[in-house]
Write a structure and sequence with these properties.
Elements lengths: L1 E2 L3 E5 L5 H8 L2 H4 L10 H10 L10 E7 L2 E14 L4 E8 L9 H15 L5 E7 L3 H9 L3 E12 L2 E11 H8 L1
Parallel strand pairs: 5-6
Antiparallel strand pairs: 1-2, 2-3, 3-4, 4-5, 6-8, 7-8
Helix pairs in contact: 1-3
The chain binds coenzyme A.
Coenzyme A binds next to strand 5, helix 4 and helix 5.
């Protein structure tokens, strides 16, 4: 488990799957993700069964927040496309529990995962893709230290319109300097 202040990242368990499927089928959540098709619990279970085939550091993580004395699942995040030669990886996150949006949890989870990626996995660079019409996510990534690196024009199509995709990134030296 990766422990933060009132927030933790842990392995996803089978019992989490029904909640995660509910989030993935919520149009407001899904519209900001790469997923665009309705998702069944069976499909999610089959995805879960294959997780052990992935490298451990690229397995998705559950985001829990402390709620009174219990931990509450609010989302998932993870690293993928890790390249050990260039020491680079990509980050993804979903806070599926909409009542928990804009409380700082997304920024905190991203910051925790970035710290883990730099200080434990010894990565040098982390990047991510975000739709240009997702100001909440862009702001959360900026607060965690990511900077805009590029705009992929009209590279997503949904609900009859093309959307721009932004690429953002963070390098370990600039992250370390900002922490001083
Ligand atoms: C994107 C996401 C991870 C952000 O996490 P979060 O906990 O909601 O965000 P935070 O509270 O850490 O930060 C959000 C920031 O955006 C701001 N914000 C929220 N709505 C905004 C809007 N419409 N316009 C501009 N800023 C906005 C908040 O005020 C806050 O900034 P501040 O602290 O400077 O006031 C989360 O909302 C989420 O998972 N959403 C659904 C799926 C998704 O978008 N995933 C990301 C795909 S790239």
């Amino acid at each position: 488990m990766i422990a933060g202040d009132g927030l933790r990242l842990r392995a996803i368990e089978r019992a989490d799957l029904p909640t995660i499927v509910t989030w993935l089928n919520d149009p407001e959540v899904r519209d900001q993700l790469a997923a665009y098709l309705p998702m069944s619990l069976a499909a999610e279970e089959s995805w879960f069964e294959k997780l052990p085939e992935r490298p451990r550091e690229q397995q998705p993580l559950a985001i829990d927040v402390q709620n009174d004395n219990a931990w509450k699942l609010i989302g998932t995040c993870g690293l993928h496309e890790v390249d050990w030669r260039t020491r680079a990886g990509e980050l993804g996150i979903m806070i599926g529990e909409k009542s928990e949006w804009s409380k700082g949890y997304g920024t905190q989870a991203v910051a925790l995962l970035v710290q883990f990626a730099f200080e434990t996995l010894n990565l040098h660079r982390i990047s991510l893709y975000v739709y240009a019409d997702n100001p909440r996510a862009i702001r959360a990534y900026e607060k965690a230290g990511f900077v805009l690196e590029g705009r992929l024009r009209d590279s997503e199509f949904r609900h009859g319109v093309y959307r721009d995709v932004l690429m953002m990134g963070i390098l370990r030296p600039e992250w370390a300097a900002a922490r001083k």
